[in-house]
Design brief:
Chain A: It holds the Pfam family Thiolase_C_1. Chain A: It comes from Frankia nepalensis. The complex is a heterodimer of chains A (386) and B (157). Chain A has 14 helices and eleven strands. Chain A is an alpha/beta fold and 386 residues long. In chain A, a hairpin with a 2-residue loop joins strand 10 and strand 11 (376-383). Chain B has one domain. In chain B, 3% of the residues lie in helices and 34% in strands. The chains are: A alpha/beta (386), B mainly beta (157). Bound molecules: zinc ion.
């Protein structure tokens, strides 16, 4: 049977303004990105017969979701044969994996995938970053109730998301000799990439000393180990390969991994392709925290377990021109937390040779993109248009 | 699930710590109340499969190893080691002033049996991966929140 990956392509990409405290209606951001992606694909909204998103409309921490499937259907006047939104996907990009499956199964021909956040404005509006970052969430007037079952295991102990990353970092530092200077390389390379990326959020230079001196959130996680909440929307059109108006700009799927877990998702992806880690020209890995990026590099097989910090040591290997250019648009650390959609957008631009001032000279042909962490993970291997 | 009748360890008042702040109380549900109220007699109890003996945390009504349905709560020693730790400096919960130590503690009863918790009565300088710790409890509403402190400092190590 023909693999799902070879039946679908990314035919169009789009983005809204992405930034801090934009104060723009998230439906407006969504419309900006969606219409741009549809036009980029050479299609019109009348061609769209599927919509897929993460996580869609539901009660949540403020700003984590800006529009749902039905908001977009109604707003753009779409006639849908297939639609899907939810938070328990294979990472945030599980929504794109789902679109590929829908297209491959013949349930839809052109699926609009989108991710909209307005966390930056929401945190301002609700007056508290902690309210939006506690597991289980809440709002300023109901700060620490139990939004979901899971929160009871963290809230009585005052545990926020960064504490989990800190536990991973600390264990690596004590057992494997990892250093803050090594974790810093992920943040520093991202920032220097952001400096060349017009659309990135934080572009001013970041020095190692500034990283080392930075305010601790949950020691050893400092401010610069955490990605930055933003407002914005990114959208893609996933199309049936045989139905794209302009195949010369269509990014291909070489392998998809939807398994639960960093290692499992990456292994599944590699099991579905003949390509190997050595074939990857550029990597956009999920960097909600610097240690997540390290973890993904290990899972993807670029180095062994607990070797990720040595892999990025000094920064040259993961910088443009290095063996494995990493998060070339600034990642989420400096480009803004678009929850995997930002990494996929950057990968598509690099593979199409349209990344502008930060386009890699090497002309990348194969990119890997990952999203999520822990149990909710996905890994996507992409190819340049052919 | 029902709590097993107490089989050992007389009530131990020294296991209760009094803190200068109020923790957020977890909801006591049929699934988890026996865990959260276990510390009332100073003993930590963990969900355990009666079929194969495996401990599971958080509590679930099916054993993931043997799929047995006979899961209850069994007393454990309360001893463990620090799997990892962090000195949290951010105020995630309005009533809980930082800094405080968040840790993942691995109980001695079973490899990989870990509890997210706080380590108290311990300076960050003394903390390290592998540090032996022992359970203590802090009241929050009807719940007894299991915390840990260095075993040596407990006088019981
Ligand atoms: Zn069992």
């Amino acid at each position: 049977m023909e693999r799902a990956e070879s039946r679908a392509v990314i035919s169009g990409v789009g983005r809204s303004p992405i930034g801090r405290r934009l104060g723009i209606d998230p439906w407006v951001l969504t419309a900006d990105a969606a219409l741009a992606a549809i036009a980029d694909a050479g299609l019109t909204p009348d061609d769209i017969d599927g919509v897929s998103t993460y996580p869609g409309a539901f009660w949540s921490t403020p700003g984590i979701t800006g529009a749902g499937v039905d908001d977009v259907r109604a707003m753009l006047g779409l006639r849908l044969r297939w639609h899907s939104g939810g938070g328990e996907t294979a990472g945030q990009l599980g929504s794109v994996v789902n679109a590929v499956l829908a297209v491959a199964a013949g349930f839809a021909t052109h699926v609009l995938c989108f991710r909209t956040v307005w966390e930056s404005t929401a945190q301002q509006g609700f007056g508290s970053r902690s309210a939006t970052l506690l597991d289980g969430g809440g709002t300023a007037d109901r700060p620490v109730r139990f939004g979901r079952e899971l929160a009871q295991w963290t809230t009585p102990f005052g545990i926020g998301y960064p504490c989990h990353a800190a536990l991973d970092m600390r264990r690596r530092m004590e057992l494997a000799g990892a250093t803050r200077e090594q974790f810093a390389q992920v943040a520093l390379v991202s920032r220097s990439n952001a400096a060349r990326t017009e659309t990135a959020v934080y572009r001013e230079p970041l020095t190692l000393q500034a990283y080392l001196d930075a305010r601790m959130i949950s020691d050893p996680v400092c401010m610069f180990d955490c990605d930055v909440p933003v407002d914005g929307s990114v959208a893609f059109v996933v199309s049936r390969a045989a139905s794209v108006p302009d195949p010369a700009r269509a990014v291909t799927f070489e392998g998809l991994g939807s398994a639960s877990g960093f290692d499992e998702a990456a292994a599944m992806m590699w099991s579905r392709t003949d390509l190997k880690p050595v074939d990857v020209d550029v990597a956009q890995v999920y960097d909600g925290f610097t240690v997540y990026a390290i973890r993904w590099l290990e899972a993807l097989g670029f180095c062994g377990p607990y070797e990720g910090t040595d892999f990025v040591d000094g920064g040259t290997r993961i910088a443009p021109g290095g063996e494995l250019p990493l998060n070339t648009g600034g990642g989420q650390l400096s480009g803004g937390r678009m929850h995997g959609y930002g990494g996929l957008l950057e990968a598509c631009l690099q593979l199409r040779g349209e990344a502008g001032a930060h386009q890699l000279d090497s002309g990348p042909q194969v990119a890997v993109v990952t999203s999520g962490a822990e149990q909710f993970t996905s890994s996507l291997l992409l190819g340049a248009p052919r | 699930m029902t709590a097993d009748p107490m089989t050992d360890a007389p009530p131990d008042g020294s296991a209760l710590v009094v803190e200068a702040f109020e923790r957020v109380a977890p909801p006591l549900t049929e699934r988890t109340a026996a865990f959260w109220t276990s510390g009332a007699d100073g003993v930590l109890r963990i969900a355990r499969c009666h079929g194969c003996g495996r401990y599971l945390h958080p509590p679930r009504p099916v054993c993931p190893a043997c799929r047995g349905r006979d899961v209850g709560f069994a007393p454990v020693s309360g001893r463990g080691t620090v799997w990892s730790w962090t000195l949290n400096r951010y105020g995630w919960v309005p009533s809980m002033p930082p800094p405080y130590v968040v840790a993942d503690v691995e109980l001695v009863e079973q490899p990989g049996l870990r509890l997210l918790t706080n380590v108290v009565d311990c300076s960050p300088e003394e903390l390290r991966v592998g540090l032996p710790v022992k359970v203590c409890f802090s009241r929050a509403g009807e719940a007894y929140i299991p915390l840990f402190r260095p075993e040596a400092g407990d006088g019981a190590g």
